[in-house]
Amino acid sequence: MNFSTLGENATTTPTPEYTNTSIDIPFVQIDLTVALVFSILDLVGIMLATLANVFLIGLVLSHSDLRKTTDVFTSSLCVSDLLASVLFQPFVIRRLLAREPNQPYEWAVRRAIGQATLSASSMSLLTATMDRYIVLRWPLRYENIISKRTAFFVISGIWLASFAMGATAYFKRNLSAVVFPSILGVIVASIVATQVSIFIIARKQVKKIWKHSRSNDKGKKLLSNMRATKTIALLLTVFLLSWLPSTIFRFYERLSGGDNTTFHTWLHPLNTLIQIHCSLDPFLYVLRNQRFKKAIAKVVKRCC
């Protein structure tokens, strides 16, 4: 499979793939070998992500000790990962394998689901990052600032906003191509800036960790907070590596008015990268969280 010839192997037909009052987009056929390889990999990722995220969400629902505020925000990320896997990625596979134009409504539905899940994922990461900032910056006031009631309203707001952006993307294609990526850029920049602030604060607290014995409750709490903070940073890194390629590519192509064949030839394979973070997130969170490890051990012991 020669990736350098992706654009050359794509076939363009004059049949409109999506039509509205002002835009006719010709259908671009993806090279079959490329389409099959990416589709198979994507399908494996979908199955893995579905099983892992359903299991993790089930753990949170069945174990009250796994419902701390940070867990609630991270569970929201798991829900968006699950929805992206079972609702968005099948559309990506269908488009990769398509040998004839998709229906206009399919484009609109895929765009809406993609925008909603992307918005939910990015905002869930932002709230989880802010949660870590508050717990390190104001540890004594944390429970007053971020109560379970507050977390519930924040999560509700995230999903209402995400569904609203998805619905808007369904009817307004240009917003999803240019405006919404700009909003995502602001969210990601906010997450990165907050993470930098967190690690500045964390460096100051390293000395405190070593001042207190590791068996001391305060020392244990500091270590636990540091570990949770690093986990959120890892989730952010995986999120960026998964979503940014297709988002930046889409944003750049729309602004530069690039070649339509090149755009569609690369966009759809890049969309399969989104599945990476959907598949890895639950494992990253569980492997770095002792409470989840213990809960899983109990489930395994009970089943055996």
UniProtKB/TrEMBL annotation:
<keyword id="KW-0807">Transducer</keyword>
<keyword id="KW-1003">Cell membrane</keyword>
<dbReference type="Pfam" id="PF00001">
    <property type="entry name" value="7tm_1"/>
</dbReference>
<keyword id="KW-0297">G-protein coupled receptor</keyword>
<keyword id="KW-0472">Membrane</keyword>
<dbReference type="InterPro" id="IPR050569">
    <property type="entry name" value="TAAR"/>
</dbReference>
<dbReference type="GO" id="GO:0004930">
    <property type="term" value="F:G protein-coupled receptor activity"/>
</dbReference>
<dbReference type="GO" id="GO:0005886">
    <property type="term" value="C:plasma membrane"/>
</dbReference>
<dbReference type="InterPro" id="IPR017452">
    <property type="entry name" value="GPCR_Rhodpsn_7TM"/>
</dbReference>
<protein>
    <submittedName>
        <fullName>Beta-2 adrenergic receptor-like</fullName>
    </submittedName>
</protein>
<keyword id="KW-1133">Transmembrane helix</keyword>
<keyword id="KW-0812">Transmembrane</keyword>
<keyword id="KW-0675">Receptor</keyword>
<dbReference type="InterPro" id="IPR000276">
    <property type="entry name" value="GPCR_Rhodpsn"/>
</dbReference>
